[in-house]
Write a structure and sequence with these properties.
By secondary structure, this protein is of the alpha/beta class. The strands form three sheets. The protein has a four-stranded parallel beta sheet, with helices on both faces. Strands 3-2-4-5 form a four-stranded parallel beta sheet, covered by helices on one side. Helix 2 links the parallel strand 2 and strand 3. Helix 4 runs parallel beside helix 5 and helix 8 runs parallel beside helix 9. It starts with a strand and ends with a helix. The mean pLDDT is 94. The chain binds FE3-S4 cluster (F3S).
Length: 278
């Protein structure tokens, strides 16, 4: 049986950086906390917990002497301020690509534009971005945007600035931009989809067209892993979404000659290696 692992499988730049910053803080003997789990992967979070890194849910759980790491998703301005007021040291591991979006929406608002974010409203990255302006709109898809325009009778001369959640798909973004271009005279758009995500999705799509079975490795709660499985299912009938090697059932691969492996941005290399070996 031939097994091909996608080159883009596993940690992206932003996740890798966040994990390294936690490792460095803990290794330096700092009392290290992360605001929320550092990444969507329970194995990594458990390893950190064993090394004494604690996960907190709100800034107020930190205090002087603590070091708090902000994860790659980023946080709102308000959460950042609350963290500062605890007296804890802050290590900001917000991915620079996400940080750029914070600046874009904040500047757009200062220029009198309404920031519009294309993404999942409840996703922490989107909540963080929305928190860098006082007023904005978040739409999951073009239908939601159309509904807003119709129901609220939004005027065409409203200056709108559109950005995207970094893990959104090109297809979704383009549909929204197409609609907005027809709708708004003074439209400004910034395609802020992360190219690492785009490349991973494209590779998963290509690999799944060439393989009889696909294994997608990642935390079941991670939206980017779920999206990868969805993309693979468009081309391949046998797609297995697993958290780690122990979840593989070898009987599923008996009559298969070609297997592809891809993994979400939060999957560490050692888990991918174990799946490959199995
Ligand atoms: Fe950053 Fe892109 Fe990863 S936005 S966290 S490098 S998926």
């Amino acid at each position: 049986m031939s097994v091909r692992v996608a080159k883009s499988a596993g940690f992206c730049f932003g996740v890798s950086r966040a994990v390294e910053l936690v490792q460095q803080a803990a290794a330096a003997g700092k009392r290290t906390l992360t605001l929320g789990p550092i990444i969507h992967n329970r194995h990594v979070v458990e390893q950190f917990a064993a090394a004494g890194v604690r996960v907190i849910d709100s800034p107020e759980e930190a205090g002087p002497g603590d070091t708090v790491v902000i994860r790659s998703h980023g946080v709102s301005r308000e959460v950042y301020k609350r963290l500062e007021s605890t007296g804890a040291e802050i290590i900001d591991a917000t991915c620079p690509f996400v940080k750029r979006i914070h600046g874009l929406v904040s500047q757009a608002e200062a220029e009198g534009r309404l920031p519009v974010i294309i993404g999942t409203p409840t996703h922490p990255e989107v909540e963080g971005i929305a928190g860098w302006c006082t007023d904005c709109r978040v739409f999951e898809n073009v239908e939601a945007m159309e509904k807003w325009v119709q129901e609220e009778n939004v005027p065409p001369d409203l200056p709108v600035c559109m950005v995207s959640q970094t893990t959104s798909t090109e297809f979704l973004w383009k549909k929204c931009v197409q609609f907005a271009k027809k709708q708004f005279t003074y439209l400004q758009t910034f395609d802020t989809i992360c190219r690492a995500t785009e490349c991973r999705q494209r590779e998963a799509s290509e690999l799944s067209q060439r393989c009889e079975a696909m294994v997608v490795v990642g935390d079941l709660k991670s939206s980017n892993t779920g999206r990868l499985a969805m993309i693979c299912r468009e081309h391949c009938d046998k797609v297995f979404l697993v958290d780690n090697a122990s979840e593989l059932n070898l009987d599923d691969f008996r009559s298969v000659s070609d297997v592809g492996i891809t993994a979400g941005a939060s999957t560490p290399a050692w888990i991918i290696k174990e799946v490959n070996k199995t």
